[in-house]
Amino acid sequence: MINTVDKTSFRRLFFALTLPDTLQQNMVQWRADNFPPQAGRPIAAANLHLTLAFLGEVSHAKAQVLQQQAGRISQPGFNVTLDDIGHWPGSGVVWLGCKNPPRGLLQLAQLLRSQAARSGCYQAPLPFHPHVTLFRGAIRPVAIPARTTNEIFPVNSFSLYESVFARGRTRYKIVQSWPLAAREEKEI
């Protein structure tokens, strides 16, 4: 059998939380209802996600190590509430985020970012700011709605994504996913 995987090739990878399809559609509708068309380049519904750790251009061997490390993570699932919104003019990003990120989200991102750094993947020195990018290229001032969607979604897994540019479009495809442990029940 011939191995078709080019072991010398590099792929653009990142760890992220996948948003439920209904949440993606709700966000797209909310965005259309609250922003003018010239606000920026809207992110396609299927590409909406919450990045945990950006890895950059990664070799096949390094990706395998990172996948093995990710598979060892054991922590309970959690809920994420998207109740904050903002605009970073420097990077041209309009985003939905968390005013008070759950501890589980912060711990998962820190684990993945630490593992990535130890494996040689550059990690920006900026603190982790959990968010979902709504628009790119928003370099002019953007009127930010007074209220967000206040969407809550359960997180029971995380994924390794590959960013693929083809036919003039960027698409994110899941390479592998890992479940989080069952949620701990609180005693009454």
Automatic annotation (TrEMBL):
The record's keywords, sorted A to Z, are:
Hydrolase, Ligase
Q: What is the residue range of the motif HXTX 2?
A: 131-134
Q: Name the Enzyme Commission number(s) assigned to this protein.
A: 3.1.4.58
Per the record's keyword annotation, is Nucleotidyltransferase included, yes or no? no
Q: Which reaction does it catalyse?
A: a 3'-end 2',3'-cyclophospho-ribonucleotide-RNA + H2O = a 3'-end 2'-phospho-ribonucleotide-RNA + H(+)
Q: Which residues form the active site?
A: H49 (proton donor), H131 (proton acceptor)
- What GO annotations for molecular function exist for this entry? ligase activity
Chain positions of motif HXTX 1 = 49-52
User: Record's superkingdom?
Assistant: Bacteria
Q: Which residues form the signal peptide?
A: none
Which protein family is named in the record? Belongs to the 2H phosphoesterase superfamily. ThpR family.
Q: What does this protein do?
A: Hydrolyzes RNA 2',3'-cyclic phosphodiester to an RNA 2'-phosphomonoester.
Which PANTHER family does the UniProt record give? Answer: RNA 2',3'-CYCLIC PHOSPHODIESTERASE
**Could you tell me what this protein is called?**
RNA 2',3'-cyclic phosphodiesterase
Please report the organism this UniProt entry assigns to the protein.
Yersinia aldovae
